[in-house]
Amino acid sequence: MSKRILKRYLPRGLYARATLILLLPVITLLLVVSLVFAQRLFDDVTQQMVKTVAREVRLVLDEPEGSPVADALEIERRRVSEADMPATDSYDWFDISGVVVVRELRGYFPDLARVSLSDSQVVMLYFQDGAAVTELIFDRRRVSARRPYQVLVNLAFYGILMTAVSYFYMRKQLRPISRLAEAAEAFGRGRHVPYRAAGALEVRAAGNAFVDMRARLERQIEQRTLMLSGVSHDLRTPLTRLRLSLAMLDEDEAAPMLRDVVEMERLLEGFLAFARGAHGAEPEPVDPIALVRQVVEDAQRAQSPVTLIEAHGEGQIALRAENIRRAVENLIGNAVRYGTRADVSVTMTDKSLRIRVEDDGPGISPENREEAVKPFARLDPARNQNRGTGVGLGLSIVLDVARAHGGTLRLGESERLGGLCADIVIAR
């Protein structure tokens, strides 16, 4: 429990944590040294100095008034009225050694009436004998160390200086890690950022491993795209010949076979869309609300029962517009295929973009949602596949698009319509 509470208040960034690791021992050392120094300087040293002055004060008090002893010891002695004596002991609130001075003097002189340290240059002692009041004045430097704060100021100055030097050095060491994180995040969003491994040996090894991994993934993506594009392209030629041959047959006899050809062409389009994936042009600033509204209007013109029910937020976000359009179209197509209506909503905040598509169909059970986003997955009982045909690439393409933008696809149950609720969530 305590670990969770402590973790909540610790910084999350690498720079902030490294700075905390750097500052914590420096500040702790400064505090310890300052406390030890204050105890020695403001307590022990002051006690020794007050002890010496107390002997001199006792000599002056034992001599009659006008004795040359006071002048020799540089202590001014004079008679004052009781009204001139302060009501209480006085010293400045920030005078740390003043507390020790007053305490020690009262320990040496039980008959001491008042001690005044208000004037930081002198010490004024008042001894009362009946109605007579004797005032003794001597230099404050005789009971307090000169410039006692100088050591503390030096400690603070050099502590800050060394911390700044260490911070700039640490920042130089952490910069390769930050560059590696930026390159990895950009690759997760489908962008290729130039990166060269640098820094310490461990950081350099991690950077080289990332570069190798990125190269392998890019080769795999390219090979997948080329393979599926080649297969889909080669199949178009025989399908075209079949369509031409069926066009020469009797219309009633050829109609079922033409439907099969159309279905095969649709499947090929799905393969090509999956082959293209979420990669392509670099992201550009796009108004996602306007983009989704246009997709909904296009679907409505195609007589699809879809409605844009909510659109909150404003501004632009870097997106691959065509890929987002394809993802939203896939979600709307699935919604109207397995239900009777589709409701679309868009919400933009300072941190994220959420595009939600809900339907009133049978939905997908929680245990099947992970399987549903896999390529070529077909969940017959969950999505009532007898109402539509496909190869199971719709949700997989949507997930690819979301991940290429640094987001994800979330599947759940629609509270409004009771069917499937699909959210594309992208961080801004």
UniProtKB/TrEMBL annotation:
Residues 171-222 form the HAMP domain. It is found in: Cell inner membrane. Pfam families: HAMP (PF00672), HATPase_c (PF02518), HisKA (PF00512). The chain crosses the membrane at residues 151-170. It is a multi-pass membrane protein. SMART domains: HATPase_c, HisKA. Its EC number is 2.7.13.3. Residues 230-428 form the Histidine kinase domain. This is histidine kinase. The lineage of its organism: Bacteria, Pseudomonadati, Pseudomonadota, Alphaproteobacteria, Rhodobacterales.
